[in-house]
Every structure is written in C-alpha cells, then in structure tokens.
Amino acid sequence: MANHSQLNFQDASSPIMEELMGFHDHALMVALAICSLVLYLLTHTLTEKLTSSTVNAQVIELVWTILPAMVLVTLALPSLRILYMMDEINNPDLTLKAIGHQWYWTYEYTDFKDLTFDSYMIPTTDLPLGHFRLLEVDHRVIVPMNSTIRVIVTADDVLHSWAVPSLGVKTDAIPGRLNQTSFLASRPGIFYGQCSEICGANHSFMPIVVESTPLADFENWSSLVPS
Predict the structure, then answer these.
(1) Following DSSP, what letter does each residue of 157-218 receive, concatenated?
(2) How far is it, in rounded angstroms, from Cα 206 to Cα 136?
(3) What is the per-residue burial (b if ≥16 Cβ within 10 Å, else e) of 21-52?
(4) Is the pTM value of this prediction over 0.70?
(5) Is 40 helix (H, G, I), strand (E, B) or coil?
(6) pLDDT level of residue 55 (50, 70, 90 thresholds)
(7) Of the four listed, 59, 129, 174, 191, which is most buried by Cβ atoms within 10 Å?
(8) DSSP 42
(9) H-helix or E-strand containing 105?
(10) pLDDT at residue 52, as a whole number
(11) What is the DSSP string of 44-91?
C-alpha cells in the first residue's frame, strides 16, 4: 500500500499493473528526451550569436512535423496494446459482483450459491491495533491467487468507482448499468483501495480490501463463510 513521501506507484501485484508501470516509465523517458532537446535549443539560442543558415526552411518544417509524429507513435502503440489487454477477459476462473451503496460495498460470488456479504469500513474506535485507519473493513474480498477474476461492477444509488491501485483496477459503478473488469493477483497479500468517485458525504469512508490467498485457503474460506 502507499506510504508517506512515496513518489512512485504502489508495488505491482498483477501483470496488468506491471505493464502500466512499464508504460509509465517509457512515457517519462520520452518526455525527458523532449525536455532535454528543448532545453538545449533554448540554451543554444540564448548563448550563441544568431547567423543565417544554409538549411532550407522546408527541410526544417519537414523535420519538426515528422519527429512529433514519430513520438506519438512510440506512445500510442504500447498504450493501445495495454488497453486491449485490460479489456480482454477470457475464461475467468471466478466471477465477483461488486455493488456500490452509500457508503459500503456488497459483494456476490456468482459461482457459489448464496455467497454474498456487505463490506463496511471499521470505525476508528473499533479498529484493532496495527490495522490501517479508514482502510480496513469488516469483511474482506477473498480471491485465489494466480487466477483470473472477473469483477462485475454496478451501483444501487449514485456513481461509485471500484479501484485497487496495486492490482491495476479502476471501474466506475453506475446505477442501472453493469461494467466489468478483471485482474489476476500474482502473489498472496492484502491490497487496499477506495471508492474513486465522489459519491456523497461519506465518500472517503467506503474502502476496498482484497485478500489474495492460495487456492486451498480460498476453498476452505468459501465453505466456512456464512451466506
């Protein structure tokens, strides 16, 4: 999860988030190259004596038209690749339905019979020692690691957004509409998120907690959890 004075993303816990972080670094390197070139040209213009050049103006116009186009291509191609990867959901191992309310989440495991529960934030006065304030919930979302999880997101009242940064997931919850996304937790752990759409007075108090466990532990939990 994020910590104070953190300058980069949270550690990636899914293949999609690893791709997003790689694209972020790639875009920053392109921006750094552009800024360095512009800074060099400005410095050269301010410090050197201006003289007439034998370079044809048409050649200069051709260069400053082609170069930006090439830069855009180097950004667009990997971006489109990641977009298609995020939209592709093939044969999910588990389907989870997340319903946003003011101000809590309801989860339904549609592959199981009557496996549904509400997830509320634990008030600060009831928070166990060592747990995170405003981020811990009374019922976590338990998923098996290394399994493709399809998440169907909707809302019961107003706009919400189901977001878990370390998993590279952020999907709007819209009343009367079903949106879907997917993720694959590549390691066991507890991943925190929050509603990312302003949804009213207690918008800041509907966190999301996803716990990734080995498949055997998930099967044990699903057989013991009350419906």
Answers:
(1) SS-EEEEEGGGTEEEEE-BT--EEEEEE--S-EEEEEEE-S--STTGGG-EEEEEEE-HHHH
(2) 9
(3) beeeeeeeeeeeeeeeeeeeeeeeeeeeeeee
(4) yes
(5) helix
(6) low
(7) 191
(8) H
(9) strand 104-109
(10) 59
(11) HHHHSPP----S-HHHHHHHHHHHHHHHHHHHHHHHHHHHHHHH---S
Task: Report CA-CA distances (Å) from 137 to 6, 71, 156, 207, 212.
Answer: 24, 45, 20, 7, 15
* 15-87: CATH number: 1.10.287.90
Q: Show me where the domains of the chain are located.
A: 15-87, 94-224
Q: Look at residues 205, 127, 193 and name the one whose alpha carbon lies nearest to residue 163.
A: 193
CB-count burial class (<10 Å; 0-12, 13-18, 19+) for 124: exposed
| Residues belonging to the chain | 227
Q: What angle do CA 170, 171, 177 make, to 5 degrees?
A: 175
Asked if the model's pLDDT at residue 204 lies above 60, the reply is yes
**The amino acid at 162:** W
Whether the CB-CB separation of 164 and 210 falls below 8 Å is answered with yes
Q: What's residue 54's pLDDT? A: 64
Q: CA 38, 39, 40, 41: dihedral to nearest 10 degrees?
A: 50
Q: Does domain 94-224 have CATH number 3.40.50.1820?
A: no
Determine the residue type at 34.
I
- β-pairing, 94-101 vs 148-155, is parallel
DSSP, res 128: P
Both tokens of 18, joined, read 């690893």
